[in-house]
Specification:
There is one protein chain. The protein is an alpha/beta fold and about 170 residues long. The protein has one domain: 3-Layer(aba) Sandwich (Rossmann fold). α1 links the parallel β1 and β2. α5 packs parallel to α7.
């Protein structure tokens, strides 16, 4: 009996601690289910424009982000979770909610596994919620991982107390 939809697991990430928990959980899930894992990082158009103004070409920027995304995953997601997992990195330019949905459609993703940052009240109203927008419009199931969800799980020690991401 199939317990999850077929297809890749799409993990949108901003490379934060919350994203690390979601990536570790998704990698372990992909390993157990024999699924492909697609890591997606969205770069804002403003960030691209600023770096172009500083003389860095767009293709060079995207190549650097691909490398940083791969490094982040292999450095911080435990080997036991990612061992044997087919991982693809995708970097897109745009607004996160739009690019997550477009990528899910393009790869015919089976499930989106994404973090929530746990914002409530005024912070959520002012900043918006990418997770909420994705939940409302996703073409596939969405599994959200709140920052506190894995405290008592086998992935609890994934995020080191002190870590530096370059």
């Amino acid at each position: 009996m199939e317990t999850m939809p077929p297809g890749a697991l799409l993990v949108p990430t901003d490379m934060s601690d919350a994203s690390l928990l979601a990536a570790a959980y998704a990698a372990d899930l992909a390993r157990r289910a024999g699924r492909r894992l697609v890591l997606l990082h969205v770069v804002s158009p403003k960030e691209i424009e600023e770096r172009v103004a500083d003389g860095q070409y767009v293709d060079q920027q995207l190549k650097e982000v691909h490398g940083r995304l791969h490094w982040w995953f292999t450095t911080f997601v435990p080997p036991t979770a990612r061992q044997g997992v087919n991982v693809e990195t995708v970097v897109r330019v745009g607004h996160p909610e739009h690019e997550i949905l477009a990528t899910a459609r393009a790869i015919q993703g089976g499930t989106i596994v994404m973090p929530t940052h746990g914002r409530t009240g005024l912070q959520r109203t002012v900043l918006g919620s990418v997770a909420e927008a994705v939940l409302r419009h996703a073409p596939c199931p969405v599994l959200t991982i709140p920052p506190t969800a894995l405290q008592n799980s086998e992935h609890a020690g994934v995020v080191p107390a002190e870590r530096e991401v370059v």
